[in-house]
Every structure is written in structure tokens, then in C-alpha cells.
Amino acid sequence: MKIKTISRSSDTYLPVRNTQEAALPRNLNPELHPFERAREYKRALTATKLERMFAQPFVGQLGNGHRDGVYSIAKNMKTVGKIATGSGDGVVKYWDVGSKEELHSFKAHYGMCSGLVVVPDYQVVERE
Q1: Residue 101 in domain
Q2: Domain for residue 40, yes or no?
Q3: Where are the beta strands (DSSP E) in 38-127?
Q4: Which residues pair with 82 in a beta bridge?
Q5: Is 72 exposed, middle or buried (0-12, 13-18, 19+ CB in 10 A)?
């Protein structure tokens, strides 16, 4: 009876780091992979296009906006299209996103407004 086996030298392989995966050999000969540069170019071009697509966060300006940067945003879960924003100078503004108009604005802190929560059942009463 003849048994055919494949014999490999253990010097050419790295030791197995994980019992799940074994290190596979790679042949880096450019003659065996003629389209490797074209593939890498296409991957780099696709990555650049995706970066440009996702790098446009500016959708529209809400009213006159804040004087400082916006550090917190919260949305009203019971009403569609209403959000509150808190800025670095402590001003909290409540917005109607559909019309992009400011509904209410008030000075909440003397420092940065780092957290914000909208309580949906709270009624805002206008002062006379």
C-alpha cells in the first residue's frame, strides 16, 4: 500500500499564535499577481470617494445659531422635529427642525453645557 503525503519544512512557517487560525504562507512574487497594483489603486480610490461622501456634515443652519460651539444635542421623543442644543457659552436653544426656527432660548449655565435632556411632558409657560 502506498500513501502519498505532503511534507513541508517547519522553518518556513511561523508558529501558530492562535489555535483557531494558522499562519498561511504568501507568495509575494509580482509575476504571480499582475493585477495587485491595480487592485490597490482601486481600493485607495474607493476609500477616498467614501471619505468625501461622509465628510459633508453641514445640512442646514438652524435660525441664527449659537455664538459658541454646540456640545450637546437632545431630541424630544414625543414630538417629531423638535430638538434642543446646548452650546459652549451655556445657552440652551429649542428648535423646530422642519422650519429651522428657534422656539425658545435661555441662559442655562455660566460655563459649557455638556449634557442635555428633553423632558417631553414639561409645559413651557411664557412670562409676561
Answers
A1: yes
A2: no
A3: 70-75, 82-87, 91-96, 101-107
A4: 96
A5: middle
* pLDDT recorded at residue 40: 85
Global pTM reads 0.49
Does 128 map to a domain?
no
Mean pLDDT of the chain: 77
Structurally, how many domains does the chain consist of? Answer: 1
**Residue 17 domain-assigned (yes or no):** no
User: Cβ(84)–Cβ(96) under 8 Å?
Assistant: no
Contact 94, 72 (CB under 8 A): no
pLDDT by 10-residue block (mean), the chain, 128 residues: 68 61 67 79 82 67 81 87 90 89 88 84 60
Distances (CA, A) of 22 to 14, 15, 16, 17, 64: 9, 8, 5, 7, 59
Q: Which triple of cell numbers denotes residue 27?
A: 507568495
Whole-angstrom distance, CA of residue 4 vs CA of residue 36: 35
Structural domain boundaries, residue 71: 63-120
